[in-house]
User: Which sequence fits this backbone?
């Protein structure tokens, strides 16, 4: 999300409940929001924004299954094909003894895979600089942003009146 | 608010804080000049780090012969310290994962510091098996990599190898969980700072903006990682207990070990969290976020797990008698009344008897008693591992090889030094990152702030008005 000269008109709200009401009002007025920024996860926001459920758990399952197979098949190959050794008179393919490592690698693959997927889909990573609208959004301000490229004066006026109607404490614009 | 909150529920954030107050209070310790108490503690713990480094160097340079291990007692302080540190490292993931699944809101006040503590405790724990190898430069032999010796693989049937996988997985997942939660708070620090400091926090906060979609994925990821970490945290100490339980040493090969070790780990981990948090809340003036209610909740967990551990001790004694197996009977007779009777006594007094004081609400809510108890419990849990390891090995099947173990200065130095390392890492962390999860505390403000719940509620009518929807 490097800068592509997006013209953003945004309003800051002082409270999460004001934000939820404003997002409801925006939906009612059929205003298309660019994004909503909050200092913490505001519950009840996702359905209003029309987000579908995150698919990270699918990634977690797939990576976890890869871990299960990697561990189990590798140990099976080592002890039945590559270098069979008898330990304490047990069969070469002693499945119960493979369970702990299989479990650990399932968790390890799933966890790493999910976290890496999370950072990739979010476009986050060490050293990444995403443009931010206001420094107080990570403190106590709740922000609704509209992209206004190509908007007429009347449309921008409409957005400003939306902000004043829904009780935004500040309204500004910024090019990101 | 949509959440249903009992009017008698005790507030978890006191002082009628606003969102901005929360940011200010929690960020304050990382900004401005360091607290003199912090500088002093850092200097003392650095001496510990130096001691650790010196004694490890001594061990590696002159060999394991500088320890008092012998043919009979081949595991002692090293593995005792390893199990002790790993046990302490269980509270963080328990608090952040299991209590997240149980939707315990008091988790938010202590989870960040507890997770950091977990990571540093695992770092300390991991040193002991490595230096015990003697030839530490060959430590990579424990991983199954294609080698020129066949390739000859590691023994996947060995609990010691399971331990390698369990602990490295636990460390990795704990680190990822902790850092992912830390990113939004590092962004808060970034947005409050200027110049170089802003650049540094900007680098580590990964470009976090607080976008609604990111928060949705953040919560989804936290929940699934918690779901993964819950069986993981139970598996790690289970596997550590397999190191003993799968052997054929009387006193070790008992099926009760996995649950008993896990309960003991949670017990000692919570004690260490309390030791740290009682100091942190005072030094960093965070009493409004780590309240007496938090301390009481943790003391309840200590009472529960301490009683499980006590029950396990008594069950072990009963079963050794009931088994009718003389070697097993001797092992337990020797633990309680043999040459190391003092460590058994210390274990029973610190782990079983003293936590019973927490049946009384007055003591659960007393900061001084809690602080002393948290130290007692960690001493008791160290004794527990010493009793299991050294006492058992000191009296094996052949009386001619019986011996008595006393540590050398090198072993004592490594143990004390590992505590220095632990506190050093924790102090550095508490200076550069918020010790309380800022975003998570903000998210419970409306349901647990004292202006909204409890007897000091000022916005009561406001609350009812919203509850009526």
Assistant:
């Amino acid at each position: 999300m490097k800068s592509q000269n997006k013209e953003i008109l945004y309003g800051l709200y002082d409270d999460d409940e004001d934000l939820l009401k404003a997002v409801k009002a925006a939906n009612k007025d059929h205003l298309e929001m660019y994004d909503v920024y909050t200092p913490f996860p505001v519950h009840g926001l996702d359905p209003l924004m029309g987000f579908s459920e995150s698919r990270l758990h699918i990634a977690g399952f797939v990576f976890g299954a890869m871990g299960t197979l990697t561990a189990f098949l590798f140990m099976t190959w080592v002890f039945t094909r590559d270098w069979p050794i008898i330990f304490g008179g047990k069969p070469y393919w002693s499945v119960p003894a493979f369970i702990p490592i299989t479990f650990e690698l399932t968790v390890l693959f799933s966890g790493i895979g999910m976290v890496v997927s999370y950072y990739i889909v979010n476009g986050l990573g060490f050293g990444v600089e995403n443009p931010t609208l206001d420094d107080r959004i990570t403190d106590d301000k709740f922000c609704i942003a509209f992209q206004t490229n190509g908007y007429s004066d009347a449309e921008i006026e409409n957005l400003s009146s939306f902000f004043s109607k829904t009780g935004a404490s500040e309204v500004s614009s910024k090019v990101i | 608010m949509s959440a249903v909150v009992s009017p008698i529920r005790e507030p978890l954030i006191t002082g009628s804080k606003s969102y901005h107050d929360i940011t200010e209070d929690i960020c304050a310790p990382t900004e401005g000049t360091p607290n003199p108490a912090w500088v002093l503690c850092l200097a003392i713990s650095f001496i510990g780090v130096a001691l650790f480094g010196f004694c490890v160097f001594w061990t590696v340079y002159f060999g394991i012969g500088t320890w008092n291990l012998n043919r009979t007692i081949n595991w002692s302080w090293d593995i005792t310290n390893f199990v002790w540190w790993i046990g302490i490292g269980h509270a963080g993931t328990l608090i952040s994962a299991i209590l997240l699944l149980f939707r315990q809101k008091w988790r938010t006040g202590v989870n960040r510091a507890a997770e950091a503590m977990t990571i540093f405790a695992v770092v300390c724990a991991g040193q002991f098996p490595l230096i015990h190898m003697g030839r530490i430069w060959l430590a990579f032999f424990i991983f199954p990599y294609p080698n020129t010796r066949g390739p000859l693989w590691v023994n996947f049937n060995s609990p010691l190898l399971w331990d390698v996988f369990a602990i490295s997985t636990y460390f990795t997942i704990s680190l990822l969980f902790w850092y992912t939660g830390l990113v939004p708070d590092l962004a808060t620090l970034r947005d409050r700072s200027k110049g170089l400091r802003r650049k540094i926090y900007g680098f580590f906060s990964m470009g976090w903006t607080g976008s609604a979609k990111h928060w949705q994925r953040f919560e989804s990821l936290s929940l699934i990682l918690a779901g993964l970490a819950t069986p993981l945290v139970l598996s790690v100490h289970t596997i550590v207990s397999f190191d003993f339980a799968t052997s054929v040493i009387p006193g070790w090969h008992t099926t009760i070990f996995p649950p008993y070790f896990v309960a003991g780990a949670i017990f000692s981990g919570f004690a260490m969290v309390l030791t740290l948090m009682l100091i942190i809340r005072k030094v960093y003036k965070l009493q409004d976020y780590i309240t007496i209610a938090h301390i009481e909740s943790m003391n309840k967990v200590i009472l529960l797990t301490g009683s499980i551990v006590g029950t396990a001790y008594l069950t072990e004694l009963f079963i050794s008698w009931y088994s009718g197996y003389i070697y097993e009977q001797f092992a337990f007779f020797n633990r309680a009344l043999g040459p190391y009777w003092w460590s058994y006594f210390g274990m029973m007094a610190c782990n079983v008897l003293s936590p019973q004081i927490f049946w009384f609400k007055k003591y659960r809510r007393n900061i001084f008693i809690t602080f002393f108890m948290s130290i007692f419990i960690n001493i008791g849990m160290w004794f527990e591992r010493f009793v299991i390891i050294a006492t058992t090995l000191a009296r094996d099947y052949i009386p001619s090889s019986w011996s008595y173990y006393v540590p050398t200065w090198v072993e004592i130095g490594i143990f004390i030094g590992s505590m220095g390392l632990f506190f050093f890492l924790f102090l550095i962390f508490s200076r550069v990152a918020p010790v309380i999860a800022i975003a998570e505390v903000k998210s419970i403000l409306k349901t647990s702030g004292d202006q909204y719940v409890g007897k000091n509620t000022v916005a009561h009518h406001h609350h009812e008005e919203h509850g009526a929807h």
About this structure: Residues 28 and 95 of chain A are 59 Å apart (CA to CA).
